[in-house]
Amino acid sequence: MNRRLVGVVAALALVGLLGAAVAATNPALLITGYDTTTVEAVDGETGETLATVEARVADGFVKQYVGLSATEALDDGEGMLFVHGESAERTYVMRDMAFPIDIVFADANGTVTRIHEAEPESRPFTRYEGTGRYVLEAPRGWSERHGVEPGDRLVIEGLDEE
Fold this sequence. Notes:
The structure is a single chain. The chain has helices at 3-25, 61-66, 142-146, and strands at residues 36-42, 49-58, 78-92, 101-106, 112-118, 128-139, 153-156. It is α+β, with helices and mostly antiparallel strands. The radius of gyration is 19 Å and the shape is elongated. The N and C termini lie far apart (58 Å).
């Protein structure tokens, strides 16, 4: 093999390793953008609208891993919606978070199953557990301010109900 080709291959390998190292230390760099959707919280008994949130959709591994950790703050009408393939027991942590949030777990039909108020923290992280296909993160106190509680529903624009 000629020396020039070996040099080019070595340089490309080094660039690839550096890129992988940067992505591993800051996975947010791998995210090029989020789709958004409107999430409406409705009373489980009356169907009355309680609140709406414009949410960024975290529907893949990297977006779900990064979550809101690359975000400085959320306004009251903003959030992030984590979309999983099926309803299951899930655990969320406040990795690299700068502000407190509500973590709202909802099953496949949007019924709220559990709500946590979570504070930023350092290791070891508190584990916030709940059952859901969807997990909505909104500014801390959002659920209480709007009367959202287990048994209410999240209606998610653009997603088929199951």
